[in-house]
Amino acid sequence: MSFKIELINEKIIEIKEEQTILQASLEAGIPHYHACGGNAECSTCRVVVQEGGEHLSHPNKAELSLRMKKKFPENARLACQTKVMSNDVKIQRIIRDETDLDLYVYENDSENLQTVGEEKSMALFFLDIRNFTPFIEQHLPFDVIHILRRLNIMFSDIIIKHNGKIIEFTGDGFYAVFGFDEPIKDAINNAYTAGKQILDSLIGLNENYITKYFDHKIDVGIGLHSGKVIVGKTGVNEHSSYTVMGFPVNVAARLESATKELNNNFVISEYVYEMLNGRSNLAEQKQIKLKGISEPFCVRLMGKSYNY
Ligand code: FES
């Protein structure tokens, strides 16, 4: 019996039941890298499975051990160890030239080795500090930066404690994601709890420090949504950082900016709301307009109103 493998952007090839993907690929004339000769030692034969992962043989001991060592994502497989068992599949080679080889293999950085882009369901969290411009205008540069640092340390500690990762700090806010290593329901609940904790902690920080010493009250707006996004690392060396993108990211950003018009400091999508553990039906529901979507978008107000 034989099946078809689509090597994306290259060629559709035949594979026999007894062949590994590497053997079939080489037989079809593809210059498939295999530095260790197919012994599950080098990882240069790695492919990303785009469709039909369930039709592949399970990773054997050798592949599992290299996978653990190099921290491959779930959809990366060693072509030299993998066979096609039951139907056609779509895959993509990772190492296609010498630059790819430097980037993914010789750099020998386990963090970078797992950075093949993948699609993942994640919780997307945007926070923006409100009414900060008057504070900037009325205080010394030292104080402005000092307060931003205090806030960012507090935000960052809470996000990390709930398994989140901050993707980017903007001047007066940040963008974080949850769900790198946990099921999406847990990620959503963690992100929600982090949001609540940030709002609670802010009350204390305002009372005991910012209002006390700077005569100012910091407010924030938080937007939370979840969906399938593309995640991977696009930077290099010390500039290496995660990139998370896709339409759900834009939605989460829009929810954060909607906190102002809805006069509520924590706005989440209905989808997130339905995934929350122990939710009540008391949270107020609203509809907002989203760019690119004709239907009104349903949100829940989970925070408090601003007292401007
Ligand atoms: S060829 Fe080296 S791991 Fe597959």
Helical segment count: 9
Summarize the helix and strand pattern as letters: EEHEHEEHHEHHEEHEEHEHEE
Low-confidence stretches: 108-114
Distance between the termini: 72 Å
Mean pLDDT: 89
CATH homology superfamily name of the largest domain: Nucleotide cyclase, GGDEF domain
User: CATH topology of the largest domain, what is it called?
Assistant: Alpha-Beta Plaits
Q: What's the number of structural domains?
A: 2
Please tell me what the overall shape is: elongated
Beta-strand content bin: 25-35%
* CATH class assignment of the largest domain: Alpha Beta
Structural class: alpha+beta
How many beta-strand runs? 13
Question: Brief description of this entry?
Answer:
With 308 residues, this protein is of the alpha+beta class. 35% of the residues lie in helices and 28% in strands. The site of FE2/S2 (inorganic) cluster has 13 residues, from loops.
Task: Explain what the structure shows.
The protein is an alpha+beta fold and about 300 residues long. It has 2 domains: about 1-110, Beta-grasp domain (Ubiquitin-like (UB roll)), CATH 3.10.20.30; about 120-300, Alpha-Beta Plaits (2-Layer Sandwich), CATH 3.30.70. The chain has 9 helices and 13 strands. Strands 6, 7, 8, 9, 10, 11, 12 and 13 form an 8-stranded mixed β-sheet that branches. A 5-stranded mixed β-sheet has the order 2-1-5-3-4, with helices on one face. The longest helix has about 30 residues, at about 185-215. The chain is elongated, with a radius of gyration of 24 Å. The protein starts with a strand and ends in a 7-residue tail after the last strand. The chain binds FE2/S2 (inorganic) cluster. FE2/S2 (inorganic) cluster (FES) binds near residues 39, 42, 43 and 78.
